[in-house]
Design goal:
Blueprint lengths: L31 H11 L4 H5 L7 H15 L3 E6 L5 H12 L3 E5 L2 H19 L5 E3 L9 H10 L5 H16 L18 H4 L18 H11 L2 E5 H10 L4 H7 L2 E4 L5 H9 L1 E4 H18 L6 H16 L7 E4 L8 H23 L4 H22 L23 H21 L6 E2 L5 E2 L7 E7 L4 E7 L3 H8 L5 E6 L9 H7 L6 E4 L5 H4 E4 L12 H16 L3 E4 L3 H18 L5 E3 L5 H11 L3 E4 L16 E4 L10 H12 L4 H18 L10 E5 L3 H4 L3 H7 L4 E3 L2 H16 L1
Parallel strand pairs: 1-12, 1-13, 2-4, 2-5, 3-4, 5-12, 14-19, 14-20, 15-17, 15-18, 16-17, 18-19
Antiparallel strand pairs: 6-11, 7-10, 8-9, 10-11
Helix pairs in contact: 1-3, 3-4, 4-5, 6-7, 10-12, 13-14, 13-16, 14-15, 15-16, 21-22, 21-28, 24-25
Length: 742
């Protein structure tokens, strides 16, 4: 269980002080009747054991179900870290079906979303024999759009004959599908480019003005979700609605009694993505193409649409040319005042205002042209906010008034003068602002009057695109604002939320109460099932040739493990070097281990091949650190090159660390270290996935042993048996081989 009072001085106590002494993980104790009911369900010979083959009663699972039920009873908040194998999904599904009322379950990955909807919910519902209705809601890009399907047929813009054939399959699919979910059409891959032509986006959806609105698959899915007792969504869908009001959550959330976030360790990153604001060259190019297409259909003689679109496209593509060939990320502060980007954005703005001016005179001729005008105005607003540093609208706020068609053009001089005036006004208002009295959030906490968080403006450059971001340094005030209002239960669960049982870092990121939490140990026998190996003699990660030194240490272990390994790297550069070196070594030594490398195929395909081969070595980076479940002998060794500290050159991280320093806090202790621990726990969690799994976790970073903070890191991992000696590792694998031969 969590002992919040045991927090190290490195982690300041940012939890709220409850008015009463916590008696049950910081929550009001569960009623005796509820306790008995849960025991009858989860206990030996209980309802789950009778209905599910192979089910075994586990006290940690029952304990989590009690805590979840207690939070639901009082509309409170719970943070639950449940070790691998605890059975956390059943632990929250049972109370949700019985006492959760209208429940939204949000997952971090589509894989878990599908698993909960298609497997776990039906299993628990049948075991409990409860008449619970269920729906799964996805983002609009997953649903076929009748309007854009018809437009694609009319335009006939195909990159190849294969794409034209795919469109014919989609046309047939549209006539027979009930849901319109593109995942149902297996013959056309979900990532096929043709889908972009036959699905809608928030930007180009015609809404109620669409001639096919009554048949809309997106609206149908939202209606089903509105009527269901349990709705399964994903984090991206949930948070997109906070700022965009475009996912159907706007209707769902007010009616929900319970919100459950599974894979909740991903929330800070996902929420940061959506609570900020991004303008991309891709949005501009898509707008230009749609304006030309709709203009030629509905107002061909009114303007030179092709020229207008070409001007906007050309100006937009020139933005990418202001940077070098390499992909990069940088803050605005890193750019010189006369950087070419600013001039290129001026040209985009001129071309965009030309398009807006034309659309304002033609928008009434067709709903599609009106939609193009709305998009163009919104992009103009967003671009202006990014250029001037104006704060994006808060959750639930309307954006600033749209561009006045009679207003004069904004010249460079006027723009600069207006920007300075806005900055001065914002500074004056911030200085005059006074703290206001608090209001209740519904979970016993007090919500302070919302104050927009400080933001950082930065640029992300890709091979053919540029994104302009404005990102909040803290998402806690925005998320707290979202959680305020009608009382409801909020459950946050994952296998990795704490640092040595301390939830301070995670709670601070989201503005939660760290005292309302519990840690549930994994039921796996880690001391006997696994071994943590930190090789001796490795250089510091910053040393030249570090990756080669890691591979020198890893090759003898790969030999005794017979392949069957993940090599998890912290950078793509290390992935490429590791793949190159391992390919050379395997060929030179004649080892028969297939080598699978991130980027050579999709993640799903690589994992399927890894499981099927049985002796492969897979080299990957961040996307393989979590959400990967390989059980059995196919994965017996996980090699991690170094502790996963986030790169300090990340613009958002750099700004957050600078803000902590200005507050007199240690950025390393308060942010970098706990975040690295949580990420490392995810990577380490790939190894032991069942009671029968056995294997070695090899961490090749000497800081785990040499640095004072290393102890805090390895003590946060499961209780592996530990060694620094290669002969002990060999003996461990020999023992596994001997047992397999018996």
């Amino acid at each position: 269980m969590t002992d919040s009072a045991a927090a190290s001085s490195d982690f300041p106590d940012i939890s709220q002080n409850p008015a009463e002494t916590p008696t049950f993980h910081g929550l009001k104790p569960l009623a005796t009747k509820r306790e008995r009911e849960l025991q009858e369900i989860f206990g030996d010979g209980g309802m789950l054991a009778r209905a599910i083959d192979g089910y075994r009663s586990r006290e940690p699972q029952t304990e989590m179900a009690r805590a979840v039920a207690a939070a639901m009873d009082t509309h409170d908040t719970l943070i639950a870290e449940a070790g691998t194998g605890t059975g956390k999904t059943y632990a929250y599904l049972v109370p949700a079906m019985l006492w959760g009322g209208k429940t939204i379950i949000s997952t971090g990955t589509k894989h878990l979303q599908d698993q909960i909807f298609a497997r776990d919910i039906p299993t628990v519902r049948k075991a409990l024999a409860v008449p619970v209705t269920v729906a799964m809601l996805k983002g609009r890009a997953n649903y076929l759009c009748h309007y854009y399907l018809e437009r694609a047929q009319q335009e006939g813009r195909f990159a190849s004959r294969h794409e034209a054939a795919q469109l014919r399959e989609i046309v047939t699919f549209a006539q027979i599908t009930h849901s319109g979910d593109k995942a149902e059409l297996a013959s056309v891959p979900e990532n096929a480019p043709i889908w972009a032509q036959v699905t809608s986006t928030r930007d180009n959806c015609l809404g109620q003005d669409c001639p096919r609105y009554k048949d809309c698959f997106v609206m149908q899915a939202r209606k089903e979700a509105q009527q269901a007792d349990l709705v399964v969504v994903n984090h991206h869908l949930f948070f997109a609605d906070v700022m965009l009001r475009d996912t159907g959550m706007a209707e769902l959330l007010p009616s929900a009694n319970t919100v459950i976030f599974d894979e909740a360790h991903q929330l800070p990153e996902t929420a940061t993505l959506f609570f900020g604001e991004t303008v991309s060259t891709g949005q501009m190019l898509e707008l230009a193409r749609d304006c030309v297409a709709e203009g030629l259909i509905h107002a061909r003689d009114a303007a030179d649409w092709v020229k207008l679109g070409a001007n906007l496209e050309r100006a937009t593509r020139d933005v990418r040319l202001t940077f070098g060939q390499d992909n990069t990320r940088m803050s605005v502060a890193q750019l010189a005042d006369d950087h070419e980007l600013f001039g290129a954005l001026d040209s985009v703005d001129v071309a965009l205002q030309d398009m807006i001016e034309t659309l304002q005179h033609q928008a009434e001729r067709a709903e599609a042209l009106g939609t193009c005008l709305r998009r163009a105005l919104e992009l103009h607003q967003q671009l202006e906010r990014w250029r001037t540093g104006a704060t994006p609208p808060a959750p639930g706020e309307s954006p600033l008034p749209l561009l006045d068609p009679d207003a004069p053009r904004v010249t460079d001089g006027k723009r600069e003068k207006a920007a300075k005036a806005r900055e001065a006004e914002a500074a004056r208002l911030a200085a005059e602002a006074k703290p206001a009295s608090g209001t209740s959030t519904g979970d016993g906490a007090t919500e302070k009057t919302y104050t927009p968080p400080e933001t950082v403006r930065w640029i992300e450059v890709f091979s053919q695109a540029v994104q302009l971001h404005q990102t909040p340094l803290s998402i806690a005030p925005i998320f707290s604002k979202q959680r305020a209002g009608a009382p409801r239960a909020w459950i946050f669960t994952s296998a990795t939320l704490s640092v040595k049982g301390n939830f301070m870092h995670y709670a601070a990121q989201l503005g939660l109460d760290a005292g309302k939490s519990l840690t549930l140990a994994s039921p796996f026998d880690y001391p006997n099932q696994s071994l943590l190996y930190v090789p001796r003699g490795l250089p510091q990660p910053s040393a030249p040739g570090f990756t080669d030194a890691v591979l020198d240490a890893a090759l003898p272990v790969l030999e005794v493990s017979g392949g069957r390994a993940f090599v998890l790297c912290t950078t793509l550069r290390a992935v490429n070097r590791a793949a190159e070196r391992l390919r050379e070594e395997f060929d030179r030594r004649g080892w028969p281990y297939p080598l699978l490398v991130q980027g050579e195929a999709s993640r799903t395909e690589l994992l399927d091949r890894f499981r099927a081969l049985g002796n492969a070595v897979l080299v990957g980076s961040q996307s393989f650190w979590e959400g990967v479940d390989v059980r059995g002998e196919a994965l017996s060794l996980v090699i991690i090159d170094k502790l996963p500290f986030a790169p300090p050159d990340d613009p958002v991280l750099a700004a957050r660390l600078d803000a902590l320093t200005k507050k007199g806090l240690s950025p390393f202790a308060v942010h970098q270290l706990p975040q690295a621990v949580i990420t490392l726990k995810q990577g380490a969690g790939r190894l032991i996935r069942s009671e029968l799994d056995r294997g070695v976790l090899m961490i090749c970073d000497p800081r785990l042993v040499d640095k004072p903070y290393g102890r805090r890191i390895w003590q946060s991992l499961p209780p592996f048996k530990r060694t620094r000696e290669l002969p002990i590792v060999r003996g461990f694998f020999d023992e596994i081989a001997a047992e397999a031969g018996d």
